[in-house]
Automatic annotation (TrEMBL):
Residue ranges crossing the lipid bilayer per the database entry: 414-434
Protein family: Belongs to the ODR-4 family.
PANTHER family (alphabetical): PROTEIN ODR-4 HOMOLOG (PTHR33966:SF1)
Record InterPro entries: ODR-4-like
GO biological process: intracellular protein localization
Naturally occurring in which organism (per UniProt): Photinus pyralis
One GO location term (cellular component): endomembrane system
Protein name: Protein odr-4 homolog
Compartment annotation: Membrane
Keywords: Membrane, Transmembrane, Transmembrane helix
Amino acid sequence: MVRGAFTDENFLKYLDTFTKLEFPTVGLMLGQRTDAKDFIIHFTRTPPYRGDAEQSIKKFADVPDSWVADHARHVTRMLPGGMYVLGLFVVCQEDIFATCVPKLKAMLSQIHKRLTPNAFLYGTPQQTEKLVLHYSQLSRYVCKSYNYDTFSLSNAEIKFQSNLAVKWLQVECKYELDQTFPIIAERANWPLKKHMNEILHLINMNLQTAVYFLDGEIKDGKECLETIGKKQKSHLRLSQLEDENKLMQVTIVLPMGGDVAPEVEILNSGGQIRLTGHVASKVWLHPKATVQYASDAIMQDIVRSLAARLEMHWDSLLEEEHGSPEDTNSVHETPRRVLINLPTTKVTLSDYLFPGEGSQEAQISLSELLDITIAQPDAIFDVEGQPDIPEMTLEGPEADCDDILASSTNRKKYIMGLVIAFVVLIISLLIHFIKG
């Protein structure tokens, strides 16, 4: 069966602009995959290579695989849950399917290797295929599908349609966090990044076993979202039927443990990490998506967003804080989430802004990573807002903790705060390091 994909015909003009260049252009196709077909929502050129070989890229074989793979990783951070890098497009005069198959396979394998190890980014869909589109100066295009299991290319079909009629369904969720994670003494000297990866793993596991309420009700996981929407409309008054952009709201109920009481083990405490706040989540799903797909997409969106901004925060730190002989109380703000409308669809992608950054910084990253120009700053929606830092300082229960820990004269305390979004993700890290 030939794999099929659908996208807007305006992208033909976008691809055609690269045929006038003397060097090959490589980029990514982004969208949502279904069992039967793919919906491509955006094409984005990989930024020109910056390096010693920048001037020597004259043919497709010269394009560094790692450069394209790194672009795929950065773009995946910006995608809502349920959306993926669906494949590559290449604009050049060479017949890449005749002369460059080993290079294509190497580049696709590099993308797969870059996205697969980071499970929190959810960079790889369940299907093991990626699309490859070759576009030439004669406005002819050929599409293939690459299978990672068989390492083979097969025929695929992509259709560029005018007014592509995909009625994307919007599903929103506000995921609230207010949880304290104990740190055993043996792990007290772990770096912050390692602690947070452990916590991300726990959050990921909890979300996988959580119960998802859609518009306040538990739905059959196999039920189609489009069918649910039609049932709801049949109970509405005529004046309410005009609202075609009605949002579906998801409420997440996390598991509280099994019926059997767990075994109790007493361990020496080396501190605690406290997370409190919320993550604004919004995903876009094709009409045939099921309730289970929607739940998975929300779960992926939350974990992907947390992982993306934490990774950006770690990359921005010059060095990790390890406390001081005296008590320290510091707050680290991680990037907040903003949403951006794509030019050809109402689907929104994400960008992340550090404290003090505004729409201007978002415009720069969007131009580089998504190859789009946002003329109006109001097209960038700050859905989480700036956190109120004074309210994030440690008070109440944490103050009692200080009294208890003060009796340990041979240890020093380390308190760290990490803020994500509106009141999103504060990490209060109290760690005792054993001297000597």
